[in-house]
């Protein structure tokens, strides 16, 4: 079981280092290291990520590094999408959910590897706010369907469409992920009940605590290690993981 605890620590560290990536590791850790069924792993990951993201967002809130307007434009549609995605999950097999998850993981990996080092933080006047709303809705559906918080999509959207600085985008993203994950987790309680499954509350609690500790470690490391190298390395790791999930479930 110690491998599972190491996985929980890695989830927290990735969130602390990059402001994203934690949720995309949680599902594989719960499935391959703990042995949870697909649907249960997706549901439990939402609870774990909600707890870690909420604690991780507190320093940003204290330092006023959260953009509340973007939270509304992205967060509310994201919550609606998450609830819809979780509702839709009852009509899709766990294997299919996992294949979709692997596809999202590979897309995330590609974005991290190809990410430009220079990003303009000026708000593009040509891009309307409804684009942010639509992306929030789409990312929310993915969150509810496969348990991905979507920080790798939220942060670029907040920077390029919302015109936020990277630090404010990360703080805002953590709160958005928290809200979406809580609502998705709540809906999954009903979805699992229909299939005769129950949450492992002890596992969720232990993973959350270890992940929270890891997020503080990751935050400290992030101040000393270049973000570009971190994201590139993490991207290649996700690419391998995504390919492995597809191979084992095809």
UniProtKB/TrEMBL annotation:
The UniProt transmembrane annotation reads: 12-34, 41-62, 68-86, 98-113, 133-161, 168-189, 201-218, 230-247
Q: Which GO terms describe its cellular component?
A: plasma membrane
- Could you list this entry's UniProt keywords, alphabetically sorted: Cell membrane, Membrane, Transmembrane, Transmembrane helix
- InterPro entries attached to this UniProt entry: TM_pro_TauE-like (IPR002781), TSUP/Inactive_protease-like (IPR051598)
Q: According to its UniProt record, where is this protein located?
A: Cell membrane; Membrane
Q: Where would one find the signal peptide in this protein?
A: none
The superkingdom listed in its UniProt entry is Bacteria
Give the family, as the similarity comment puts it: Belongs to the 4-toluene sulfonate uptake permease (TSUP) (TC 2.A.102) family.
**This chain belongs to which protein, by name?**
Probable membrane transporter protein
Q: Which organism is it from?
A: Gracilimonas sediminicola
